Amino acid sequence: MNFSSKLLESAVEEFSKLPGVGKKTALRLVLHLLKSSSTEVHNFSNSITTLKDNIKYCQKCHNISDEGICEICNSTKRDVSTICVVEDTRDVMAIENTHQYQGLYHVLNGLISPMDGVGPADLTIELLLERVRTGEVQEVIFALSATMEGDTTIFYLHKKLKDFNIKISTIARGIAFGGEIEYADEITLGRSIATRVPYENTLMK
Ligand SMILES: [Zn+2]
Questions:
Q1: How far does residue 74's CA lie from ligand 1's centre (Å)?
Q2: Which end of the chain is more exposed for a tag (fewer CB within 10 A), N or C?
């Protein structure tokens, strides 16, 4: 792309670093912002820097939160004996939308992926083990994507958790194979949590 302005080029460069945004889309977004009012553009950039500077991660479940402990962990209406393990905050939102789940969550902040150099130490696995060790946990449910990374992560977690006296289950994979759980429709996702199965049953004998 030949830009008529260095400023334009640098803004397009920044936008095209976002996932799923190519150079053409980046240019379209930047030109759109350029046509917007100064107030709108300042609000836009302020909301992003304020988010980055002030966001917290729940000290218990690592979900994105405005407070040290998130609303779900703080609620007295949740079943503290059940923890649903998910990849990121999008999954918490998807599962909450189903209104089928009353337990707590644990956000891993990614999945184990040797190809991308992500190992267990890069995730919040220690925090999860600590919760199981010290909390009133009776069941851990894996709600991770049916991908290689999801399966690797479940396998690793199961190894770490199997000696605790708890139930370990995985959501029923009614979800399209290789599908990510945030894209599953609410009914399918809700049903797959309700009909979860013991993880051991899913292993090939
Ligand atoms: Zn929390």
A1: 7
A2: C
